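Could someone model zinc ion with this protein?
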Amino acid sequence: MGISPNAGYVQTVQGIVSPESLGITLPHEHLLIDQTVGGVYFVEPEGASDRILAHQPVCLENLWWVRRHMKDNYDNQFLLDEHLAAREASLFYLRGGGTIVDQTNIGIGRDPGALLRISRATGLNIVMGCGFYVDGPSTQEERDSMDVEDFASRIVQDMTVGVDQTRIKSGIIGELGCTWPLKPNEKKVLEAAALAQQQSGASINVHPGRNDEAPLEIIDVLQRAGADLSRVVMSHMDRCGYALDTRLRLLDAGCFVEYDLFGFEGYYPARVALAEGHLPDTPNDVGRIKEMRDLIGRGYLTQILMSHDIGMKMQLTAYGGWGYAHIVRDVVPLMYVYGYSQQEVDTLMIENPKRLLTLV
Ligand SMILES: [Zn+2]
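Reply:
Sure, complex below.
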């Protein structure tokens, strides 16, 4: 018997399900999101011609610019249409997908009712996140007044009672948004997550700052606060080129490392990377496949996760993007080309997420 009354099960927006029913799982996506809420990423451009592009709705005529300035177009930061979300998610279901983890949490537009409707419309299991995204100008004042216990009780409430009055429960703590250097409220949220993990039996997903020291500091904070690092996921390991040594140190500490930007083919905006002290080098899909192959060769097969982190319009098929089915449709066949076995693919896409999401 574990900590959670639902130990041994996975908590979806429709209720608890058997881990065996998850199937192919995308552990880090956003079906609905508002990325402007923290006030961290979108910045009004200086140049007049760029300002026009920054405020146009995403469309075929400006997609060439949006793809290279993904954080600089305001409309690109929003996924607000639940009917479009259901249509896009169903592309994953139609290719054999079973479960999507929606890592949208407090501060970026989490919507339990819409997730429930999307789950029912598509036939997919949807696991909802909880906790808090990056702290920024628009969130700081409220969070300054909260202490670690306040943050923890909010997380535990979402896991055990449900979000607000909906009674719809979260199934994972995350994605906990961190920037570099780590802000005081972000540190409090990490410590709260460790406490909440001990009370809920859930895993934790962290979005680290864009610096090699960031994920290592985060696991240090989590460990000191009592987190079980074997149930911690470090997201975005394929964004801004974390050093091999950093990834190995996370793996040796017992964490999952997540390659969750599949579909991004080697381009990341320099402005966003440099703001946190890192170069923007980002692998393409083949680079990801080779990096994961290397880590598997070193014995870390059971600690790697794969997803797309879809959270902007340009990533949806309706806007010329790759969509939620990209990994099963385009990447898995490529993995076979690079020598992956069926058993390795199943471990990455079914078994690892299953272990992650099963409450203990
Ligand atoms: Zn995310």
